[in-house]
Design brief:
four-stranded antiparallel β-sheet, globular, 51% strand, 11 strands, mainly beta
């Protein structure tokens, strides 16, 4: 069992940066592929980025490529999402998730979810 908790959200102006972190409990964190998803008001939750259990493979939503970077530290049981050049359309609640289905864009591949952290980008 893995429990996840996100932090680092907040209000930032367009063009600014935020770094989201997700802390995981449990000794099996390194066995899980990790993903970040987001959900904007009135919209379905969408995939943002994912990283494989050893960190060697990454997958990104096209609209965040070159702006967002996902990373993980298995010794500290954390996964991070560095978000640069933020845009108003990045405003959403961001969730981290753990699964064993690879760096999937599909929510169904993830078994464990955090409660989310709000990111608001003002124009």
């Amino acid at each position: 069992q893995v429990q996840l908790g996100e932090s680092g959200g907040g209000l930032v102006q367009a063009g600014g940066s935020l770094r989201l972190s997700c802390a995981a409990s449990g000794r099996t964190f390194s066995n899980y592929d990790m993903g970040w998803f987001r959900q904007a008001p009135g919209r379905e939750r969408e995939f943002v980025a994912a990283i494989s259990w050893l960190g060697g493979v990454r997958n990104y939503l096209d609209s965040v490529k070159g702006r967002f970077t996902i990373s993980r530290d298995n010794a500290k049981n954390t996964v991070s999402l560095q978000m640069n050049t933020l845009k108003p359309e990045d405003t959403a609640v961001y969730f981290c998730a753990a699964g064993r289905g690879g760096v999937s864009r599909n929510e169904a591949a993830y078994d464990h979810w955090g409660q989310g952290t709000q990111v608001t980008v003002s124009s």
